[in-house]
Amino acid sequence: MSQRDWVAQAIRKIEADFNRSADTHLIPLGLPGFPGIDVYLKDESSHPTGSLKHRLARSLFLYALANGWLHAGSTVVEASSGSTAVSEAYFARLLGLPFVAVMPSSTSPEKIAAIEFHGGRCHLVPSACGIAEASVRLARETGGHFMDQFTYAERATDWRANNNIAESIFKQMAHEAHPVPRWIVCSAGTGGTSATIGRYARYRGYDTRVLCADPEHSAFFAHYARCIVGEATGDPAPAPPSRIEGIGRPRAEASFIPGCVDAMLKVPDALSLAAMRWTNTRLGRRVGGSTGTNVIGVLHAAHAMRAAGRSGSIVSILCDGGERYAHSYYAHDWYAAQGFDMDAAGTLVRAVAEQAAALPPLPTAGEAAN
Ligand SMILES: Cc1ncc(COP(=O)(O)O)c(C=O)c1O
Fold it and tell me: Which residues form the Tryptophan synthase beta chain-like PALP domain (predicted)?
């Protein structure tokens, strides 16, 4: 088979896989403390590989194939905090390609097991700062291709339509009381999701703003404040590894496009995890930590809307399920080891969500969330 025929067949396989898949659900999440403000979570855990990264992995493979970067037998190498690698291992196996995930050694054992389950190999490095460099080296040694999600996520996704996450959200909102969300709240790993949503909202002329919630250990917030607000924060020192898996990076990645984000919020990890637990009680199942970070962003936006006398809707993302974090967010000892006071954080989040108590003031940048 010629290279060209192999590429055509590989693209057909991915398109057929897409054709067999359903869209993800948009789930109403009642916020009892905020009548007139309707909140929804886009449940990306229901993809075949369990996270929002399923969309990205599909896009990255199609982009690489269309660019002529992948051939029969190419080893695919990726730098990941885990979720993207799980999804890419799935697509690599679909195409019969070897796959190597380069990840920090702190990556959850559940994600490592999921990558191996899909036929991938894991190459662990001591720190999140070293994953790109190690990936370049491995790709060179194997004659393979480094996917590089942190560079290509924003451009591999079809931001104008093609059932991207933004188009899907707006379609699913069509019959709701407030069909155009005032805010869509997300968080950034690559920044690809925030770029896609921000571009799509502007392109379609929707009066929707993007709020990006950043975890405690991450360079995105300071980078954003510098680019958008012109705050003289200096060159931020590399952040320590994020404790909210999948989001937060030690440096601002190329795929994070500040201009696509209308506002940012810095969220302490204990609050993210308390919001994760509160969300579990509302949904009757376990979600991952980044969903909790998003829910704090939702509460911040809901408060600001309420203070401005606005009603309307807010959409956010349920990024993945809790089964990937049994050893951490769902292990009692883990919280003690991190030194979190989860009782206080839990009481606070419940009071904010259910009785509209005030959130503590959190660092914000960009447009006021009202
Ligand atoms: C669990 C989880 N949530 C959220 C995100 C953020 O998505 P994005 O990479 O589009 O910024 C990621 C990215 O890795 C993730 O793994």
Answer: 25-320
